[in-house]
Amino acid sequence: xxxxxxxxxxxxxxxxxxxxxxxxxxxxxxxxxxxxxxxxxxxxxxxxxxxxxxxxxxxxxxxxxxxxxxxxxxxxxxxxxxxxxxxxxxxxxxxxxxxxxxxxxxxxxxxxxxxxxxxxxxxxxxxxxxxxxxxxxxxxxxxxxxxxxxxxxxxxxxxxxxxxxxxxxxxxxxxxxxxxxxxxxxxxxxxxxxxxxxxxxxxxxxxxxxxxxxxxxxxxxxxxxxxxxxxxxxxxxxxxxxxxxxxxxxxxxxxxxxxxxxxxxxxxxxxxxxxxxxxxxxxxxxxxxxxxxxxxxxxxxxxxxxxxxxxxxxxxxxxxxxxxxxxxxxxxxxxxxxxxxxxxxxxxxxxxxxxxxxxxxxxxxxxxxxxxxxxxxxxxxxxxxxxxx
Length: 389
What we know:
The chain has 389 residues and is mainly β.
């Protein structure tokens, strides 16, 4: 994260004695990235965070297999048709992925068990509903439109308030704001489309009691359930630059040009081998002869995964795309507006339309995306031919 925070009680100096009211020592835990060479935080536990009493292997859930996008074609998936099962961790339905990122959909009203992803950061986008994110750092109340960024190794759980639908982006490394938005010291620059004030992090400790508390742990070797002697939510305070946070898509500030701007102006986060972009309501392009709609384009180095989360998709009218849809446009395929969309938007502008209401979350990957069982189960198989009609 780009700036320093303090939550709860901490000692004046790092790595010095910090005593509990009964005279014993709090247990210090460093959560750090890249081998002590990048962002970190220090957490102070009532009990040893290393004290486990049991470990058991967990069978990998069935249905996590990926298949190549063959024959190569654009795809349309209707996530609205996917039935929820499990929780926001075990109930994730794999849509697409590669060695850098896995993209899953989940819908549930069930709380998850405690979970730690030790393979990489996660970015969970809340499409619908409200959910409380609870962790060793504290809690965040997430709502529709929130991205919740969870650092690698964070013990946490999700507690929905009714039905909630999410897109889970699981990275093989770290998810961060784009470097071009930050100064050399980590502050958001004036041209960045969001800043520190837009980020919501835990504001106070979240303390819980318990013994032999199970935590599901994902590593590159598979799944394990560790049982901790004491509840991991025993942190009385922490400080540093590494912590979970939420950012709402409504707080993204779109860049507007006279003519149509390409997707990099919508970039929100970057990860290893992929970027995340937010398409938000904005003024239409204002050159008197502009074509205020995406031009046909061929991203020769990227697969484009677009999750449509709200608004009106003028450029996609006639394609079957609607709220809850996912389009996948792979490298090797030129894509753009549906037939007649350009003329329709120009006509709308001539009648006084000045804004677009579309909202979407896009993940562009720099290696091909393979298809998961969830995508194949809800595919609109006619989509590839809609430009030829």
